[in-house]
Amino acid sequence: MELSNLAVPSVYVLIFFLAYTSQWLLKDLEPAPPTEGEYIRFNILLICLLISYTRSVFVDPGHIPTMHEHEKGPANDVSDNFPSQSRPDNTNGHRKWCRKCNLPKPPRAHHCRTCGRCIPKMDHHCPWTANCVSHTTFPHFLRFLFYAVASLAYLASLLWPPIAHLWHNRNMPSYLGPSMLQLVHLFALCVGDFVMLFALGILLVRNIWSLAVNTTTIEGWEIERHATLVRRARYFGGWLEGPGGVQVRIEKQEFPYDVGIWTNCKEGMGTGNVSAISLSIIQSSEKGYMPLPYPVAHCCHMVSRPSLPRRPSLTFR
Ligand SMILES: [Zn+2]
Ligand SMILES: [Zn+2]
Asked: Which molecular function terms from Gene Ontology are attached (predicted)?
């Protein structure tokens, strides 16, 4: 059994430890157990967390439709997707081709070695969900981060009163306080809560930023690489040496998918419905894809996407 197969069960065990053993411990600690309202609010957050995490793990990250699927698809889709001329030697030099899948690689798609196929709008392959964060799984992944951070912050607020009480009574005889086992349990919960809150908080902010600017992790690296090339080229009159000693003109290109925060958020979350964005239980999946304002095959081919605005004169490859 590979170690990576243990990642998802480990996350469920960690959620169980932090979320449920804490509730069992807190009911016996002074100054007072959490109130009924606090238990209810905490458990609602935990239900949302478990649903969004489970969806991040099990929702299909999508695939690039094969020629066969396109031939079977609706007639009005065919012209926008894979025309029969889009073979590698007839690609007029613009389309990328995945040699491993032997299929065209649409803009924003990348080949994931772990999933073994090209993934639409791939962000990264997350080892903790054992799934790609992609066009279809990003909303679940973001909600998972949000509910994880909210649950951890709420747990911190529940852990604080007993810790403050212990500190206040630190000079009292130890037999009047909690047992050694309870103290170790409380300490482990505090460390786990703090570490996870810090790590997932950073990840949440980073992913909200990604959503707002409509830039995946891989595209972020590409933008950085491009900026470095442009900086270097400035010293050589806008030219750099390419493969085989060929001089290549380097021009600054603007990233074309950032079309305004609200439109970016709608596209990234697959809906403009605010309640559907925040509640993972509402947003459903249909044949592995979530409902989107445009067909997923169009999204794979941003050049032909009909319903969202785009700056037509800009290219980013
Ligand atoms: Zn591929
Ligand atoms: Zn993957």
From this structure: protein-cysteine S-palmitoyltransferase activity
Please name which ligand lies nearest the alpha carbon of 123.
2
- Cis peptide leading into 106, omega within 30 of 0? no
Domain spans in the chain, listed from the N-terminal domain onward: 3-59+138-213
How many CA atoms within 13 Å lie on the side-chain side of 313? Answer: 0
CA of 267 to the centre of ligand 1 (A): 23
Give the other-Cβ count within 10 Å of 181's Cβ.
9
Ligand 2 centre from 128 Cα, in Å?
12
User: Would you say the pTM of this structure is higher than 0.90?
Assistant: no
Going from the Cα of 287 to the center of ligand 1, the distance in angstroms, rounded, reads: 20
Give the CA distances from residue 280 to residues 177, 182, 193, 307, in Å, rounded to whole numbers and listed in that order.
Answer: 41, 35, 23, 25
CA of 189 to the centre of ligand 1 (A): 42
Ligand nearest to the CA of 111: 1
Please write the tens of the pLDDT for every residue from 8-45.
999 999 999 999 999 999 998 888 899 999 999 999 99
Residues with a known catalytic role = 126
Provide the sign of the torsion angle of the four alpha carbons 218, 227, 311, 86, taken in this order.
negative
Q: Which ligand is nearest to the CA of 109?
A: 1
Out of 49-63, 82-96, 106-120, 260-274, pick the least confident. 82-96
